[in-house]
Amino acid sequence: MWRHIARHFEASRKVVTFDHVGSGKSDRHVYDRARYATLHAYADDFIEILEAGELTGVDAIGHSVGGMITLLAAGKRPDLFNRIMMLGSSPCYLNLGGYQGGFDREGIEELLAFLEMSLQGWSSYLAPLVMANADRPELTAELENYFVSNDPDIMHDFARVIFLSDHRADLAAVTTPALIMQCRDDIISPPQVGEFMQAQIRGSDRVLLNTQGHYPHLSDPDAVREAMIAWLGEAAQKAA
Predict the structure, then answer these.
(1) Residues 39 and 10: beta-carbon distance below 8 Å
(2) How far, in Å, CA of 83 to CA of 179, rounded?
(3) Mean pLDDT across 3-28
(4) What is the pLDDT of residues 107-121, one digit of tens each?
(5) Alpha helix (H) ranges present in 22-64?
(6) Whole-angstrom Cα distance, residue 125 to residue 114?
């Protein structure tokens, strides 16, 4: 999913992409429901990858839950990270008290129940809503195909961990320079979530992309790439 972005950086940087355990081409036999009951296990995996590759001073970007996994990893091991970028991420999807994550508990439970009943039906329903580019059906088809390629049991577990997690308290512990990128119209990560994150992450920056949907790295990769390049350049100047 990062192919449109990664190729623009490969000439000047070492680019590493990976599949989380349970998805893509990862070894699904090592998936353990108890271990991966929280996002912290995925953050530990990320750290393990960096250690195995002897990678430090990393500029890391993650999309949606990947952004929160990146944030948790940077909180655990700030020595490994130079800067982090989060695209369409959210620390909590639930509306809790005065916090508006975008979803009520009943709506989340209905979505998870639908997924448990039918991965194909859930994928066909959700893909067009989150891609939000009706005039480009090939993008929706790619996303739907990605969803259904996953193991349905692992997908349900992961979705439950994602949508019911609450990592708001972890934001203030981040000391790594951070960029929060959001789309102007994204039902998964509405603007108020990005505003909350920026207020909690000390010294963070926020960019509102003039795009729609939850997958701009597929639907408008140039906008994402340009925002990344601009911020990385500005961050480097500040550090100097």
Answers:
(1) no
(2) 8
(3) 92
(4) 999 999 999 999 999
(5) 39-52
(6) 10
Q: What angle do CA 125, 42, 185 make, to 5 degrees?
A: 40
Give the pLDDT confidence of 165-184 residue by residue, as tens digits: 999 999 999 999 999 999 99
Report residue 210: phi and psi, to 5°.
-85, 60
165: left (phi > 0), else alpha (psi -120 to 50), else beta? beta
Exactly one of 45, 64, 165, 220 is catalytic; which is it?
A: 64
Please name the residues in contact with 165: beta carbons below 8 A apart, sequence gap of 6 or more.
38, 39, 68, 92, 93
For residue 64, give both structure tokens: 């949606």
Place of tokens 């100097």: 240
What is the Cα–Cα distance from 63 to 34, expressed in whole angstroms?
Answer: 24
How many residues are listed for the chain in this entry? 240
Active site residue 185: no
Q: How far apart are CA 170 and CA 87, in angstroms?
A: 17
Q: How far apart are CA 47 and CA 53, in angstroms?
A: 10
Residue 20 bears catalytic tag: no
Both structure tokens of 197: 């994150």
Task: Identify which of 79, 104, 67 has the alpha carbon closest to the alpha carbon of residue 180.
Answer: 67
Candidates 214, 217, 219, 220; catalytic one: 214
Residue of 68, 65, 88 whose CA lies nearest to 223: 88
Assigned CATH topology for domain 3-7+58-239: Rossmann fold (3.40.50)
Listed by start position, the domains of the chain span 3-7+58-239
Active-site residue identified among 45, 59, 186, 220: 186
Look up 156 and say whether it is catalytic. no
